Amino acid sequence: MNPENIIEVKNLSHSYGDFRAVDNISFNVKKGEFFSFLGPNGAGKSTAINILITLLNLQQGSVFIAGHSLNENPKKVRNSIGIVFQEITLDRDMTVYETLEFHARLYSMPKEEREKRIEYLLNLVELSEKRDDLTKNLSGGMKRRLEIARGLITKPMILFLDEPTIGLDPQTRMKTWDYLREVNKSGTTIFLTTHYMDEADSLSDRISIIDNGKIITTGTPEELKNSLGKDIIYLETSDDNKALKILRDNPEIQDAVKKDSHILIITKSDGAKILPQIMHTLEKNSLKTISVNLKKPSMDDVFLHYTGRALRE
Ligand SMILES: Nc1ncnc2c1ncn2[C@@H]1O[C@H](COP(=O)(O)OP(=O)(O)OP(=O)(O)O)[C@@H](O)[C@H]1O
């Protein structure tokens, strides 16, 4: 195992009966990284994460977590990780404080350390004022924050989160992202699964796109978006029809179409380099540029490109 890797997975497969939910996936996560699995419902994300957190048995492949073999030392693996499940798993009749205290006691944390840790975590997820509230009276976002705090009680090296912001409103989602960034900054490696493009894009150092049980591609959000090798340019000129005819002859342009009050151009390579050429050509043909907007492909474009379909399908 490479000492830089805190998670090392090789040729992992998992079947339910005849159905192969995870199909020969390999990937590494580096210490301190924020790593995400991005894929639609049913892609195999939960199955994969459940194997890594020792909830599902390892059928095929090799997994090392925090230097321990999942097969030979599942207990040591469990002691190195924190978990936030997809479903809310709080005891409704416990208070916020009791929830954290109960969990810390489960791990036999001494009283003084326990109290300090709980204070720190309540502060981190901004639930100090809610410490005596029953969890059933918390909002959805607060419940999630409490679960994140609970997952962090034992100072795990890696925090696993399965779809942590499912069902939260946009504002609460973004607040949850802030906490996760904070947790990651403080040195905890994060492994997250999500079907939200913006979530993976905004949080991750690296993303693996997973579909039908297979990893389709892996890279930083920038690498993935740049790998399409094309940019999108919106252009408004003094004569769009004339401009279109001229631009279509440019070998660097993959496609140019008129859209509402502007021209949409898809470039074959780096748009920032092609744009000055385009402007020059237009000027030479006595066309005035009224407005211009260069846009990098979004994670939606990336997903569409690699899987052949939009994720919302
Ligand atoms: N216990 C099970 N028995 C049979 N099939 C299962 C079981 N659990 C999951 N599957 C199937 O395996 C595939 C992968 O499911 P999995 O839950 O891992 O996907 P996912 O990407 O996490 O999606 P979701 O976020 O909706 O859970 C799906 O087709 C699912 O129906």
UniProtKB/TrEMBL annotation:
It is found in: Cell membrane. GO terms for molecular function: ATP binding; ATP hydrolysis activity. It is a peripheral membrane protein. Its main location: membrane. Residues 7-237 form the ABC transporter domain. One of its GO terms (cellular component) is plasma membrane. GO terms for biological process: daunorubicin transport; doxorubicin transport. Keywords: ATP-binding, Cell membrane, Membrane, Nucleotide-binding, Translocase, Transport. Pfam families: ABC_tran, DrrA1-3_C. It comes from the Archaea. Belongs to the ABC transporter superfamily. Drug exporter-1 (DrugE1) (TC 3.A.1.105) family. This is ATP-binding cassette domain-containing protein. It comes from Methanomicrobium antiquum.
